[in-house]
Amino acid sequence: MLKRTGELVLSIIGLSVHGFMSFIALVFALQIHFLFGVGRNFAEADPLVTPEDLYAFDLVLGVLVPFTWFVTILQFLAIVPVAMALYWYRSKSKRAGIIFIVVGALSIIITVGLGMLYGGLYVAAGIMLLVRKPPLREDRPVENIYGADKRLREIEEEQMERKERFEEQEKTDERT
Questions:
Q1: At what angle do helices 51-88 and 5-45 cross, to 10 degrees?
Q2: Are 78 and 104 in contact (CB under 8 A)?
Q3: pLDDT, tens digit, 9 for 90 and up, residues 130-162
Q4: pLDDT by residue (tens digit) across 91-122?
Q5: Which tens digits make up the pLDDT trace of 42-62?
Q6: I need a labelling partner for 123 at 20 to 30 A (CA). Which of 10, 43, 58, 145 fits?
Q7: For residues 105 and 98, what is the distance between their CA atoms, to the nearest angstrom?
């Protein structure tokens, strides 16, 4: 059985950073939500604020508030498949690797690059899980694992056929 220590370390660090960033995103979303409610009241009470300013305020925060909640919810939802991949990383390494790569790529894309650190760690762990070769078994030689012995026999047969054809060609050339 492979130890896969590197994959485990990368994914645990990624999960820790992911959890911390999810908490920060939650705090930011709550602050934006609070700012939208309270800031509007303060802006309406200020005599220097024009209706156009209020419209711009509503427009910016009207887009920012749902986006921050969307990203925050997706951040917390992404922790579930990562935890599943951590559970499977030894027994079903290919599946865990694919999950890490997908979650890492989506985290980078959805958070508009803010999840680059933990997304990159997930992608690196996923690639490591996918490309790690299985351990060699003593009951099967190396060639049998990858099917190389069959191809080697085919090449030897082709060479023998070429040699026979070449010898036949030489014999016919000598006769003439």
A1: 160
A2: no
A3: 887 666 555 555 555 556 667 778 888 899 999
A4: 787 888 888 899 888 888 887 777 788 888 88
A5: 667 777 777 777 778 778 877
A6: 145
A7: 11
Q: Amino acid identity of 136?
A: L
Residue with tokens 């994914």: 11
The secondary structure element, H or E, covering residue 31 is: helix 5-45
End-to-end CA distance of the chain: 66
Residue with tokens 């997908």: 102
Task: Pick the closest to residue 15 from 92, 75, 94, 91 (CA basis).
Answer: 75
Of 79, 101, 82, 97, residue with least CA distance to 19: 79
Q: Which among 119, 124, 126 has a CA at the least distance from the CA of 92?
A: 126
Model pTM? Answer: 0.61
Q: Report which of 19, 3, 16, 21 is spatially closest to residue 128, judged by C-alpha positions.
A: 3
As given in the structure block, the two tokens for residue 70 are 């969307």
